[in-house]
Amino acid sequence: KGVPKKGKWEERWTENGRKLAGNRLGHVMTDEQMEVLRKQIAVYATICEQLVELHKSLTSQNDLAGVRLGNLYCDPLITSGAHKITGRQRWTPTPMQLQILERIFDQGIGTPSKQKIKEITNELSQHGQISETNVYNWFQNRRARSKRKQQAAPQNNGESEVETEVESLSPNHEKKTKPEEFHQPPHQQVLTSRTTDEDLCFQNTHPTTAIDPHTSKPEPMLP
Amino acid sequence: KGVPKKGKWEERWTENGRKLAGNRLGHVMTDEQMEVLRKQIAVYATICEQLVELHKSLTSQNDLAGVRLGNLYCDPLITSGAHKITGRQRWTPTPMQLQILERIFDQGIGTPSKQKIKEITNELSQHGQISETNVYNWFQNRRARSKRKQQAAPQNNGESEVETEVESLSPNHEKKTKPEEFHQPPHQQVLTSRTTDEDLCFQNTHPTTAIDPHTSKPEPMLP
DNA sequence: CCTGTATGAATGAAAG
DNA sequence: CTTTCATTCATACAGG
After folding, report:
1. B169 at the A interface (CB within 8 A)?
2. Which stretches does the entry tag as region Disordered (chains A, B) (predicted)?
């Protein structure tokens, strides 16, 4: 199969449950820790990916080292799928919930505030699973998108750059006070030339060694 | 699609709910699971190391590779295909930077003094572009969100959790990070069965392959 | 299957 | 520090 079957990784994580009590065998991880872990693995995945790429480009000329790697790199899945370690499902409002949300939304106040959120959540939970975060996000998105749409529609100022949103390089939107541009340390200015091409990567380190051995050393991971 | 399309993100297993195991805040892992995790990370570390070595030995012969490297490598990173051709306006931490930041963060001191920021920024700049403002904001956000999450999810104090599996209660999560949010599943299934064949790679490779987590430095990671 | 589009969620940056 | 905004990521879902 062209598409390698994704591993059963997630199950290893979700398969948890039961026990623990005073059991010394159980470990409890907070979601935050899980997140950290996930990212750390992602770092390795990234490094491996890059190295593998490198390896491939090199072996096209020198295939000597291929063997070993062949074995080690046995799981393209984990590598490419490291991001997802834990499956994430996304909440989908039921028609009913959506209706209510919608009603509340244009019913006025666009800032539900914490307390309000709680209430709403509580009410909606009677129509299906939902959490405060969901409600929070919903309003957040609703407002943002409503705004954007509005801005895009009436816009006819001969600006061809009005444009949906693709690569709106000119953040001439209503934006804020800042002309935009991400901060850059005073020194090392040179790198700023990252025009449209994106580099954001490791090579920024030292041109000579794209991969710094140090970076691949496992560091102390969890607290 | 010659391009290493990784965006696939594995098949949709989120169909109709199902699964959804730990809707408790914490995840409980057995030693076995922890061990597996540890090993997998260790393997990653080892692979990276070996690849780095390989890379070094190869480039010593063909330094031309170094050049290409600089260009070739830029994008496939950032978890899950970052936009290919888009100039990014906002700073995005590289996995490496994130790892470091994260480490510093939970390393205790939640008070990134001006001086400290400078140091951190300097260190991180070795792994990519970054400015003090970025670091500052990062900590600011990190703290705020961490806090919010915690508040929203009062965890049972070391309470053992039987977690039979019913859990029909609606322990409204709320956090902000990964962990699964409940979906639609009015009813949940344990579904833990790792029915599918076999588990992927890594742990299998462990014994036979040349790499031995113990001998190689990758070791420390979990408390 | 593969592609495009709607939208839930994550997060850097800024305002309050 | 807390709340809000803007932008981007990833996925659920409808079409071909």
Report:
1. no
2. 142-191
